[in-house]
Amino acid sequence: MDRTFILRFAVAVILIMHSVPGMFNNGINDFGNLYLNMVGFAPYGVFLAWLIKLSHVAAAVLLLWNKYVKLASIVTIFILVMGIVMVHFSEGWFVVGGGRNGVEFNFLLIFVLLAIMFPNGINNKIKE
Asked: Transmembrane segments in this chain: where (predicted)?
């Protein structure tokens, strides 16, 4: 186990739990039809929703295997940022407590993925 395993494992569990249940309860199709298609992605909303969720599953597997971690993280960070821009920003900061459906969880995941990508810090990577 390397120094990022615990974080990689935690993010993998979160990505799996954020995507797999929606594959069986129509959540992905609803996200595609009832949100993505309505905000301008029609007729590709369902296809895009499935790509997003399948990318989460792929990223989870890659994080667990410790393979292509930077690629998986970059794709996931892009999706998280787009989630902030399109969904969460208008709801404010808090996921619960001081608000609902805000950006704080995506913000945390983005920085955890950055910590996984650069386990020795960004300054050390720039110097190499």
From this structure: 5-24, 44-64, 71-90, 102-122
Q: Encoding tokens for residue 114?
A: 């950055």
C-alpha 107 chain-centroid distance: 10
User: Which of 81, 65, 80, 76 minimizes the C-alpha distance to 4?
Assistant: 65
Please name which of 88, 86, 108 lies closest in space to residue 100, comparing C-alpha atoms. 88
Helix (H), strand (E), coil (C) string for 30-91 = HHHHHHHHHHHHCCCHHHHHHHHHHHHHHHHHHHHHCCCHHHHHHHHHHHHHHHHHHHHHHH
Tell me the C-alpha distance between 113 and 128, whole Å: 21
pLDDT by residue, tens only, the chain of 128 residues: 799 999 999 999 999 999 999 999 999 999 999 999 999 999 999 999 999 999 999 999 999 999 999 999 999 999 999 999 999 999 999 999 888 999 999 999 999 999 999 998 887 655 55
**Contacts with 48 (C-beta within 8 Å, 6 or more apart), sequence order:** 32, 36, 41
Q: What residue spans define the domains of the chain?
A: 5-117
The single residue listed with the structure tokens 């190499």 is 128
